[in-house]
DNA sequence: ACCATGATTGTTCAA
DNA sequence: TTGAACAATCATGGT
């Protein structure tokens, strides 16, 4: 069913103005994490998940990685990460879907791999309900690493 | 000396 | 469905 591609998930065309997340200061998010990091000095209630896979870089980040090099190349004097972010964001929006396509494709692949890792991590979530304060080191979970090197398929979809 | 922050957008998870 | 947080980067500042 290729027709499903048209509908992502209820286009929020109802009203864009209803977006509370407009100028969200990401800085705040650190506050939460910070509390964890700093507080962690005491008790690691928020256990550190060794399996916790880091989120895959979105198309924007993929593009940013390359953009950073270029940006720094043109502006070797710029040292503020925010500078690249702003420039990248602006540039990103300037790009057309076709331009972002390659980045999205890569991001999509990243996501696929991430999902695989998530499967393993999911197991851990299974035993999350444990109230135990401290989790005694109960042996390392034996996770069979079955490398699944599957070929990669390129699919072109003409959208838009 | 070390960790947090700043700024971008996208994606992902959890309730 | 919605919200909230985090993904990289890198110099700098605050404790």
From TrEMBL:
Residues 53-122 form the HMG box domain. GO terms for cellular component: chromatin; nucleus. Keywords: DNA-binding, Nucleus. InterPro entries: HMG_box_dom, HMG_box_dom_sf, HMGB_plant. CDD domains: HMG-box_AtHMGB1-like (cd22005). Residues 1-57, 84-160 are annotated as: Disordered. The keyword Repeat does not apply. It is found in: Nucleus. The keyword DNA-binding applies. One of its GO terms (molecular function) is DNA binding. Residues 143-160 have a biased composition (Acidic residues). One of its GO terms (biological process) is chromatin organization. Pfam families: HMG_box. It comes from the Eukaryota. Residues 11-25, 101-114 have a biased composition (Basic and acidic residues). Belongs to the HMGB family. This is HMG box domain-containing protein. It comes from Escallonia herrerae.
């Amino acid at each position: 069913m290729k027709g499903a591609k048209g509908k992502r998930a209820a286009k929020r065309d109802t009203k864009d103005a209803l977006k509370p997340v407009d100028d969200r200061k990401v800085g705040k998010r650190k506050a939460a994490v910070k509390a964890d990091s700093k507080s962690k000095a005491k008790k690691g209630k928020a256990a550190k998940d060794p399996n916790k896979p880091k989120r895959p870089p979105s198309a924007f980040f993929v593009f940013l990685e390359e953009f950073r090099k270029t940006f720094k190349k043109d502006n070797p004097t710029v040292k503020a990460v925010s500078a690249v972010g702003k420039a990248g964001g602006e540039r990103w929006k300037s790009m057309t879907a076709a331009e972002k396509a390659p980045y999205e494709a890569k991001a999509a692949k990243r996501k696929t791999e991430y999902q695989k890792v998530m499967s393993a991590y999911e197991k851990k979530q299974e035993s999350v309900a444990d109230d135990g304060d401290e989790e005694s080191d109960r042996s390392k979970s034996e996770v069979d690493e079955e490398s699944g090197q599957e070929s990669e398929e390129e699919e072109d979809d003409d959208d838009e």
